[in-house]
Amino acid sequence: MHLLCDLIFIFCDIVSGFPIIGIEWQKMENPDLRKAMGMKPDQKGVRVRRVEPTAPESGCLQPSDIILSFDGVDIANDGTVPFRHGERISFSYLVSQKYTGDKALIKVLRNSKVHEFKIKLATHKRLIAAHVKGRPPSYYIVAGFVFAAVSVPYLRSEYGKDYEYDAPVKLLVKHLHSMAESPDEQLVVVSQVLVADINIGYEDIVNTQVLAVNGHPVKNLKDLVTTVENCKDEFLKFDLEYDQIVVLETKTAKAATEDILTTHCIPSAMSDDLKT
C-alpha cells in the first residue's frame, strides 16, 4: 500500500496544519514519454495526472503539465530533489518545509512552452478527511440504517490502527484516489444496520457508499438528512454503490425509527451537529 503513495498525492502531515500540493503525478523516466510530451533533452520533471478541484492549484495547473521545479529547485524525472550528503528525496519534502499561506514558485512545461506560477499553499479539502478536529462523530439513523461520513478517525475506529491494511479495498481506493469536487463534499456510507423487522434483508450492508436518495445525489451527510427528513414520497429509495438499492416505505420507516432507538438505547436519531 505504501508503494502507491509515490504515485498519489504529494502530502505531508495534514493534522499538523502543513500545506500540500493538490495533485497526483507521474514519473517521467521513460524517454519516449518525455519526447511525446515535448520535453527537451535537458528538461526534467514530473507529469501532472490530476488536480484536486478544491485546491488553489486548480486555477493554474492542468493535467499533463510537466512540473520542472519548485521554488527554484529542479525536479528529477523520478520526482526527487537533492537532499543532504548527496542523497535525494521526494520533492514533497520541499512542500513540507512550507506553512499554510506561504507562496511558492512553480515552473511548468505546457505544450512545449515554459510557464511560471506563484501559488499560495493551503491545506486542502480531501474527500476523506484526515481528522475531525476533536468533534464527536456525526451520524444519522432512520429505520435502523446508520449513516456516517467517512474520515480517517472513522476508518481507525472501524478497522483499528492498521486500517490501511484491514479496511476494505473499496474504501482504501477512495481514501487514496478520490478527490472532493467541492469543499463540503463527504463520502457518506451506510455504516451498519440495526436489525429490525422493517430492514429485513438489508442486514449485511456495511460501510457501503450512498450515492443518491430518491434520485437526489448525496453531497454530504447533512444533505442526506435534509432529503430524508423532508421526503413526502411514498417510498425512500437509497441508491448505493455497485448498483445496490434500498427501498423503504417512508411513513413506516420514520415511525419505526423511534422504537429502534429505544431498543438500542440511542438517545437521538442524529448527532447534535446535524440538528442545526
TrEMBL record:
Where is the signal peptide, in residue numbers?
Answer: 1-17
Q: Which domain of life is it from?
A: Eukaryota
The answer to whether UniProt assigns keyword Protease to this entry is yes
Domain Protease Do-like PDZ, by residue range, is 130-273
Q: Does the keyword Protease apply?
A: yes
Q: Name one GO molecular function term.
A: serine-type endopeptidase activity
Q: Which residues form the PDZ domain?
A: 21-121
The family database entries (InterPro entries) matched by this protein are listed as: DEGP_PDZ, DEGP_PDZ_sf, PDZ, PDZ_sf
> Which processes are annotated in GO (biological process)?
proteolysis
Q: Mind listing the UniProt keywords for this protein, alphabetically? A: Hydrolase, Protease, Serine protease, Signal
Q: List the PANTHER family.
A: PROTEASE DO-LIKE 9, PTHR45980
Q: What is this protein called?
A: Protease Do-like PDZ domain-containing protein
Q: In which organism is this protein found?
A: Triticum turgidum subsp. durum
